[in-house]
Amino acid sequence: MQKITNDFDGVTLFYLCNPNNPTGTITPKNTLSHWVDNAPKNHYFLLDEAYDEYVANPNFESGLAFIKQGNLNVLVAKTFSKIYTLAGLRIGYAVGSKELIELTERCMSLSNTNLSGAVASLASLQDTEFLEYSRLSNLRSRQIVGTT
Ligand SMILES: Cc1ncc(COP(=O)(O)O)c(C=O)c1O
């Protein structure tokens, strides 16, 4: 039987959906901090936070905290498809260090963002009333199906 070794030392991308889809489970901030703080410099973390606005668990913390602290290896991906309900407009964004964003942009097509999505997403960031409505209706739905 082939032995599984742990001696790969090349560039590594760790993709984590937090909170996870479809389970809704979270990776607690302490666990995530431990991984990020102890990772080699050539290990990168892509944190998919498509659903973070729905989390009420105090053990959850957005990966934005790492970026605010100056961490260069963390990229947080966000979408307007979920709580903002703009899925059809294909709009989202990533947050990370200047260096990481520049590297990421090299792999993106020029037509990445459409005008309708750009305008609607900027407007939806101002619409805190709708955001709260969207969050509460999701919460009520989860209560009805018994997942909270
Ligand atoms: C965990 C997760 N990340 C990202 C996405 C992508 O969303 P979109 O491509 O609509 O921006 C989805 C959509 O289902 C998702 O469930």
UniProtKB/TrEMBL annotation:
Keywords: Aminotransferase, Pyridoxal phosphate, Transferase. The keyword Repressor does not apply. The keyword rRNA-binding does not apply. GO terms for molecular function: pyridoxal phosphate binding; transaminase activity. Residues 10-136 form the Aminotransferase class I/classII large domain. Gene3D superfamilies: Aspartate Aminotransferase, domain 1, Type I PLP-dependent aspartate aminotransferase-like (Major domain). Its EC number is 2.6.1.-. It is an enzyme of class 2 (transferase). InterPro entries: Aminotransferase_I/II_large, HistidinolP_aminotransfase, PyrdxlP-dep_Trfase, PyrdxlP-dep_Trfase_major, PyrdxlP-dep_Trfase_small. It comes from the Bacteria. Belongs to the class-II pyridoxal-phosphate-dependent aminotransferase family. Histidinol-phosphate aminotransferase subfamily. This is Phenylalanine aminotransferase. The lineage of its organism: Bacteria, Pseudomonadati, Pseudomonadota, Gammaproteobacteria, Moraxellales. The gene is pat.
